[in-house]
Amino acid sequence: MIGRVTQQTLQRSTLANLQLNLSKMSDLQAQMSSGKKITKPSDDPAGTAQALSLRAQNRATTQYQRNAQDGEAWLTTIDTAMQTSVTTLRRVRDLVVQSGSGALNATGREALATEIEGLRDSLLGQANTSYLGRSVFAGSSNAGAAFRVDSTTTPPTYTWTGSPDASVQRRLAPDTTVRADADGSAFFGDGATSVFTMLDDIAAGLRAGTDVTSKLDDIDTRTSSMLGELSNVGTRTNQIKAAQSNNALALQDVSTRLSGVEDIDLAQTVVELQMQEVAYKGALGATARVLQPTLMDFLR
């Protein structure tokens, strides 16, 4: 059975095709203006899911990169404080060796004792170094200073306020973390075994006129321990720099993949838009012919 085609049917079909062409041209213009081929999830559901996954990966990697930068800043601050402390302790050793020459009188020994106490204060200042208001030698402790001094005792007591189990960690990758602080008790000692107590003993010995060269072995032991901790900080710094390099490559890779999913091919889109414009103009011409007949045309 042959269906009847009326003028209204023909008009309705022509207008529907015209609207379809106009919709396609609108989509292409939206892609051109935004530079993205996915302007809404329905444009490409699979591509949308992939883009969301890549964006989540990009955000995570960016956070890892910020963590690495913060960790590097912590370790750089620690490295500077440690190197300064080692240099200070070497100066103390030179003074102790000088005191053993036998050519110093009481005034000279007092001068050496005063200088050593000044070096002790310098070491204490380095031990209480902070970064952004947080002590770098006390882990996650909120005590404010890594070492607390009790001057009511003779000699003064130096107490480390941190905890070996409360370190500052920075995550560099989903399964990789690095320690960003340093153990102040391992580097400077704690209580009676601290480098500060040792320097107090040396200063007191100089004032009492005793031979303090026996402390050289203690100084060398502490210096060796400091250098070991300094080496550990260098190892962690290298680990962070390697992570930064890996994260930078990962970010570049994710950006490239995301661009492949979302970004348009500009040349191809321009060609498609021009073709659609030609089709739309043709549809307008056909529509003009379909809508041209009037009542007078039928009466003829």
UniProtKB/TrEMBL annotation:
Top-level taxon in the UniProt lineage: Bacteria
Keywords: Cell projection, Cilium, Flagellum
Domain called Flagellin N-terminal: residue spans: 7-140
Pfam family, one: Flagellin_N
The protein's name in its UniProt record: Flagellar hook-associated protein FlgL
Annotated gene: flgL
